[in-house]
Amino acid sequence: MALSPLVAQAAEKTVVLNVDNGTCELCAPIVKKTLSRVKGVTAVQVKEANANASAVATVTFDDATADVPTLIAAATNAGYPAHVKN
User: Which Pfam families does the record match to this protein (predicted)?
Assistant: First the structure.
């Protein structure tokens, strides 16, 4: 059985999120672990925040399995509200 050429193929995407409340040295590992557990996520890097800024998470994911709203919800539900970095 041949697959139709119209079958959507997954693509690897990367999003950069600002993550609030990530100012302690324990926060970045928690955010990384939380985002890594989202199905479809293949890589996460988190840069710890200083007192005047948000932490920054760079997340690579399979867009057939995960999406940005799911990533934001995961971080937010863990106590680290997130939004796409402008």
Answer: HMA (PF00403)
